[in-house]
Design a protein that fits this description.
Elements (H helix, E strand, L loop, with lengths): L1 E2 L40 E2 L21 H35 L46 H13 L11 H7 L1 H6 L12 E6 L12 H5 L4 H10 L5 E3 L2 E7 L3 E5 L5 H8 L5 E3 L28 H6 L2 H11 L2 H6 L5 E4 L11 H4 L12 H8 L4 E6 L2 H12 L6 H19 L4 H5 L2 H6 L9 H8 L8 E5 H6 L1 H11 L7 H8 L9 H4 L6 H22 L10
Helix pairs in contact: 2-14, 2-22, 17-22
Family: Belongs to the sulfotransferase 1 family.
Organism: Rhynochetos jubatus
Enzyme class: transferase
Length: 559
């Protein structure tokens, strides 16, 4: 039996040849068949036995394929292909519609992540741990971006929006309305013969009363319970008795180390507390002005009960006991003011105003109507403030290494910097610089704390309420290279008396505190691309800072 190769490639039994797609019917004639006609066709002879397809070799003399044969043989596969493409089209359409609905597609720019919440009141009932979702970028667009020119466009946009506008200072009556309890506890006049803002407060408890039973610092932290156990034992010995009444001496700090984190504040604190005339709060960083008085223990845990001002004042009882002993001595009366001064070293005081949005109304265009310094100045207009700063680029990397919990690397840091810059740009497109710097939602969404390095923004706001001669600004780079010189500057600023050679050596030659951990050092420096990006971002802020302080060292050109 003969089989046409073009239309009967499959080796079929003789009785099935009539089913050939092109040569239908039993009267097939190769000479008359329009497909089989011609010399180019080679008939294939087989016997009636069924053969395996893979055992047959197809032979052609002409390499040109017949499209008719192709469609004849591939009709089933072609239908399957068309059906598959149809299914794929439907799946893609469903994906696009779903993605558009959830904001995952059609992003205006590869570097525009998320949107800035235009109405902060919408988030009043959310916990702080949920705030990050409002600025959560699309996960499928986050990548390790090494393209410096692309990120530079983001920085250029931010720079073009920078305006250093002087804030309006609130009046005293407005502050009283916001914090009536605080104003009822702290008087507006203090003891005249003490450098510290101290006063006597009547104590109405008896000998069986625990004066620290409700102190939130003692309740929420086991670390401080030992301190409060000691204070309970000596409490009654330091009460002042007058006309059948008991009085306790209350004090606020004479000076504050207000910032910034990862800039050497711990080392400065450790050296200052070695001075015989300096006393600090029982806890190095109470964070009361910025967090605890609002009920914030850790930002990720949301709000707890607010710490009253009495809990904060309890932290200075150890120092108050010593001050009271000196005040009552004859020596103190003869020499006038005593030399002991109290300090407090919360590194969040300068910059952290994140809680305002949950407590203060009447904000103007997203800017906080009241800042921490407004309240400190209201009670202590003569307070002294110490600020330790550092190259903001290096500060940010140190901050990342210290606070990141896992998967730390120079590449991961670069990715987080890129993401944070994009979020900050989004904010700056719609809001003022101050509104973005103090915005809780944005600050909690950024993977790294870019805003902490915008030193001049915070400093200018502190200068709206405090005089420049009340603020000492130091550089960590200078402190690291010449500890003795910076400590002498601090002693002079605080009007501390001269030290013996032994005392000075103890303070200036002790090893540095809170240095980088060995496991973090092994990660090496940040990527050169990351450093160049951050230099560009911080440059306009450093330039303004150098102008305000009349010191080009704050440009950090040599670091």
């Amino acid at each position: 039996m003969r089989y046409c190769i073009n239309c009967c490639i499959h080796l079929l039994p003789n009785d099935l040849h009539r089913h050939c797609f092109r040569c239908r019917g039993p009267n097939h004639n190769n000479q008359k068949c329009p497909v089989c006609k011609g010399e180019s066709q080679i008939p294939l002879y087989t016997d009636s036995k069924q053969m395996k397809l893979l055992a047959v070799l197809e032979v052609r003399t002409d390499h040109s394929e017949s499209w008719n044969g192709f469609f004849c043989l591939r009709k089933g596969k072609l239908c399957s292909l068309i059906f598959g493409l149809l299914i794929m089209t439907l799946v893609m359409a469903s994906y696009v519609l779903t993605g558009a609905k959830h904001g995952l597609l059609l992003i205006p720019s590869p570097f525009h992540y998320g949107a800035f919440a235009s109405n902060p009141s919408l988030m009043d009932n959310e916990s702080l741990s949920d705030m990050k979702d409002h600025y959560q970028p699309s996960k499928m667009n986050i990548s390790y971006v090494k393209d410096y020119p692309s990120i530079k466009l983001i920085i250029d946009t931010i720079t073009s929006k920078i305006e250093f506008i002087t804030r309006q200072r609130p009046d005293l009556e407005e502050l009283r309305k916001q914090e009536p309890h605080m104003f009822s506890v702290i008087p507006n006049k203090f003891l005249p013969n003490s450098k510290n803002p101290c006063w006597y407060e009547e104590y109405r408890g008896n000998t069986t009363t625990d004066p620290y039973a409700t102190n939130s610092y003692a309740l929420y932290s086991k670390r401080f319970r030992t301190i409060f156990d000691y204070l309970r034992k000596v409490f009654w010995n330091h009460l002042y008795h007058y006309k059948d009444k008991h009085y306790r001496l209350r004090c606020l700090p004479h000076f504050y180390i207000i910032g910034q984190p990862k800039c050497g504040t711990t080392d400065l604190y450790d050296r200052l507390r070695l001075h015989p005339d300096v006393r600090f709060s029982a806890i190095k960083e109470p964070h009361w002005w910025t967090r605890k008085r609002f009920g914030i223990i850790r930002l990720r845990d949301g709000f707890h009960d607010r710490y009253p001002v009495e809990d904060y004042l309890d932290l200075f009882d150890l120092a108050a006991h010593q001050i009271q002993g000196v005040l009552q001595s004859e020596a103190a009366k003869e020499r006038g003011k005593m030399n002991i001064i109290i300090g407090e070293a919360s590194a969040s005081t300068m910059w952290d105003n994140n809680a305002w949005i949950f407590f203060y109304d009447n904000s103007t265009e997203g800017e906080p109507p009241f800042l921490i310094q407004d309240f400190i100045h209201a009670f202590q207009p003569n307070a002294k403030l110490i600020i330790m700063l550092r190259d903001p680029v290096e500060r940010l990397y140190s901050d990342y290494l210290y606070f990141a919990s896992a998967n730390k690397s120079a590449e991961d840091f670069h990715e987080k910097v890129a993401e944070s810059l994009q979020l900050f740009e989004n904010c700056m497109l719609d809001y003022s610089l101050r509104a973005c710097v103090y915005n809780n939602t944005l600050n909690n969404a950024m993977p790294v704390r870019l805003q902490v390095g915008l030193y001049v923004v915070y400093l200018l706001d502190w200068l709206t309420v405090f005089d420049k001669d009340q603020i000492l600004v130091l550089r960590l780079e200078d402190h690291a290279s010449n500890v003795k010189y910076t400590m002498h500057m601090v002693f002079q600023f605080l009007d501390l008396g001269p030290l013996s050679e032994k005392q000075e050596a103890l303070i200036t030659k002790s090893p540095a505190s809170n240095t980088r951990r060995p496991e973090d050092r092994s990660l090496g420096p940040m990527l050169p691309t990351t450093k160049a990006i951050l230099r560009d971002f911080y440059r306009p802020f450093n330039t303004k800072l150098a102008q305000v302080l009349f010191d080009d060292a704050f440009l950090w050109k040599r670091t």
